Structures are given as structure tokens and as C-alpha cells.
Amino acid sequence: MHQDDLGAVGNEAHGLFERFNVDGDVARESSQRAATTLKGNDFTLGPALSLTAEVWNGQRRTLLQACAHISNHLNYTRRRHSEDEAHIAATMRQRDGSAMPVSHILDQFK
After folding, report:
1. pTM of the full predicted structure?
2. For residue 97, what is the enclosing H or E element?
3. Residue of 24, 2, 57, 23 whose CA lies nearest to 10
4. CA of 65: how far to CAs of 11, 41, 71, 78, in Å?
5. In sequence order, what are the residues at sequence separation of 6 or more whose Cβ sits closer than 8 angstroms to the Cβ of residue 52?
6. Angle of CA points 84, 82, 110, to nearest 5°
7. Alpha-carbon distance 13 to 63, whole Å?
8. Cα 92 to chain center, whole Å?
9. Which candidate, 7, 23, 12, places its Cα nearest to that of 56?
10. pLDDT (tens digit, 0 to 9) for every residue of the chain, 110 residues total?
């Protein structure tokens, strides 16, 4: 896996988090308003809609947490991979003492 691949997936997860945080909350707000209005007019649908909005919000938060976890983990992995490659590049040497490019390390194990 390349750093660009990790970054792309992490960016998509972050983008999903940002969009769903806003767009998903619109459904909760409008459902709660409708539930309050229905309850205020003695419709039995009001409490059921309120419960639906609560369940929706719980599921929305779970998805947001998952997206944040994926994004954060991939950012950490990308950063750590970059640090590891820098360390390897700094410590691996060719016969003449010059730094060995990371891309040549695999050739050493064939």
C-alpha cells in the first residue's frame, strides 16, 4: 500500500464524516420538530417519531465515530510509514557507503 492510497482513503473517510455530520443532523432536527408538533397536538405518532429520531441520532453518531477512527488511523499509519521509510533510508547503506534508496531494499531479499 502506498502513502497516496492511505491518504485517499483517509480523506474520503474524513469527507464522509464532514458531510454526514451536517446532512445527517438535518434529518434529526426536522424529525424532532415534527415529533414535538405531533405530541403537542395529541397525535400518538409524536412519541414514536421522537424515538425514531433518537435511534437515528445514535446510529449517526456511531457512523461518525467509525469515519473519524478510519481517518485518524490512516493518517497515523501514513505518518508512521513515512517515519519508518526515513529511518530505513538513513540506516541502509550500499557497498560504497552511500544511502540505499528504499526501493532497493526489496531487491536485497530476492
Report:
1. 0.60
2. none
3. 2
4. 15, 36, 10, 20
5. 31, 35
6. 55
7. 10
8. 34
9. 23
10. 556 776 777 788 888 888 888 888 887 888 899 999 999 999 999 999 999 999 988 999 998 898 888 878 877 777 777 777 777 767 777 778 777 776 776 676 66
